[in-house]
Amino acid sequence: MTTGKARGLAPTRARGRKFDWTKCRAATVAVAAGALLLLGSGAQGQKRSLAMLDQLEPGSWELREHGESSVTRNLCIGNGRQLIQLRHQGIPCRAVVVEDTANEVVVQYTCRGQGYGRTRVRRETNGLIQIDSQGIVSGLPFVVTAEGRRTGSCRN
Questions:
Q1: What are the angstrom distances between the C-alpha of 132 and each of 8, 60, 62, 69?
Q2: DSSP per-residue codes, 112-148
């Protein structure tokens, strides 16, 4: 049962006991301290986010999709980050890094009014990767599972 003006914002009572603000403040301080620790850790010399994608060799890449369609696409990329939004290329999107290790990244992104996606890139070498991406584009679902190989320099 709430005892304040706005429902859900006022302190609650449980079986006649008063709400303990001390516990609430302690939890808030702990969450804030954790957030500051996470934000500050990047400034203290740890590796950059999505560093694995930055290590992929720029140039011409061939993406060979797995499955029945087995479509092959050629891309000219300046850096590996361009592989995150295969179905939303050139669209500004907000991204959240879900996983970021030395050989694998998972990024979830949302493109306002255009859809969203979740992409996993696993590096075998700096010239060979595996990509799994799925989401919604133009109101329709998509799934991409492909192998990417660097084939050389881009041809202009």
A1: 41, 19, 15, 15
A2: TTTEEEEEEEEEEETTEEEEEEEEEETTEEEEEEEEE
Helices (H), the chain: 21-41, 51-55
Q: How far is it, in rounded angstroms, from Cα 40 to Cα 46?
A: 10
d(CA 44, CA 31): 20
User: pLDDT digits over 21-54, tens only?
Assistant: 445 444 443 443 333 333 333 333 444 589 999 9
Closest CA to 119 of 90, 101, 143: 143
Res 7 pLDDT > 70: no
- The torsion angles phi and psi of 61, rounded to 5 degrees, stand at -125, 140
| Of 78 and 9, the one with more pLDDT | 78
What is the structure's pLDDT at 18? 53
Residue 2: predicted pLDDT: 46
Residue 17 DSSP class: B
d(CA 43, CA 24) in angstroms, rounded, equals 30
Residue 61 and residue 151 in contact, taking contact as beta carbons nearer than 8 Å? yes
User: Which of 49, 69, 54 lies closest to 146 in space, CA to CA?
Assistant: 69
